[in-house]
Amino acid sequence: MMEYKDHITFYKNYWFSSAASLISESEWGDSRAAEEFLAKYWLSGQEYQLIWKPIQDSIFINQAELPNLLFVENFEVLILKGGCLFIEEEFIRLQSILQHIGEKYFVVIQNKQDFTLGEPVFRMKFPATISWDELISGNYISAVLLEMNYNEYFIFGLSGNWAKYSATEYIFPLDIYGFKHEYASIFKEKFKQPKNGEEEIKKWVPATYKRLIT
Amino acid sequence: MGLDFVPLGKTLKIFIGPVNSIIHNKVKDFIIKLLKKRGKGTIKLLNQFNSVESLIEKAGTLTRVKAGMQGFIKGDGLTIFNNLIKDATLQANGRYLLKDGTLLSYHISKKTGHFTIDVTSPISKELTKIRFTQ
């Protein structure tokens, strides 16, 4: 059964076509590119339950929502401005970390969102070496996946050593990276913020996270 | 009389179909008439937000987020949204096109409860979230 069939039809005519920056409105609607992309990178429900859900549960506190803590106790956190899943610059930085860690794959699991009008949610699996051009090759599927300003996602790798929660619908959109202590220095180095950026983020983060950020 | 039940935008399109602009315009006129009947507070509110420029201005300093901007306004988001789209054209994708080329749509976040107007500027093409707090 094609688990992503609804995605191909639902997003073909979607309000975000006039808001996306990755592709123009006139390019929107290439269902062949969308289907090819989903065929390559869709994560099946069976594989998710068997392999990835246990990893997700070892990183994220089950059912936790902001402003509560999302990561289990042994994870350190780094909080950045959010707003969508990835922009190119951030993705390239994350990818260099994944190469350092030796990560083979990462997944993008959309959190359920009750407020939508029935939008089908995403469950994707990508090789850690995927290029940005390939990531955006899925026409409207890539645009919705990467840029939609109210999709929230769990992103994590097979190693279980790091993850990100993309909290685009929080009062102030946040990207919350979590990682084990041994990877703290590389995450902080790759995602180093200018001083004024750090100060702004401190104003945005939930009180529960203030004690965790340095 | 509350208007929160009145389906607009995408919801309206789902109920009556994308091409039924006659029904849509009748519903829209009905809403505008209802809005006009609302109290002085509403009229004052609508006078304050009679254009997208006034909306953005009232949101104060917008904050840059990844892939867009964000601002906050206190007030009844749906009433303001309906006022802004009174001369707009409903697009096939469910958004409203204003005469100056600005595109508007809205969503309500169950996570925060915020009514949010999504504005796309015709110049920058950038998406701005205007979130309403009571």
Can you describe what's shown?
The complex is a heterodimer of chains A (214) and B (134). Chain A is an alpha+beta fold and 214 residues long. Chain A has one domain. Chain A has nine helices and six strands; from the N terminus they run αααβαββααβββααα. Chain A has helices at 5-10, 31-41, 45-59, 88-101, 132-135, 140-147, 184-190, 195-204, 207-210, and strands spanning 75-81, 105-110, 123-127, 153-157, 162-167, 174-180. Chain A has a six-stranded antiparallel beta sheet, sandwiched between helices. In chain A, strand 5 (162-167) and strand 6 form a beta hairpin. The mean pLDDT of chain A is 93. With 134 residues, chain B is α+β, with helices and mostly antiparallel strands. Chain B has one domain. Chain B contains five helices and seven strands, in the order H-H-H-H-E-E-H-E-E-E-E-E. Chain B has helices spanning 9-16, 21-37, 40-48, 52-58, 77-84, and strands at residues 63-65, 68-74, 89-90, 96-97, 103-108, 115-120, 127-133. In chain B, strands 1-2-7-6-5-4-3 form a seven-stranded mixed beta sheet, with helices on one face. Chain B is globular and about 35 Å long. The model of chain B is unreliable at 1-20 (pLDDT under 50). Chains A and B meet through loops of A and helix 1, strand 1, strand 5, strand 6 and strand 7 of B.
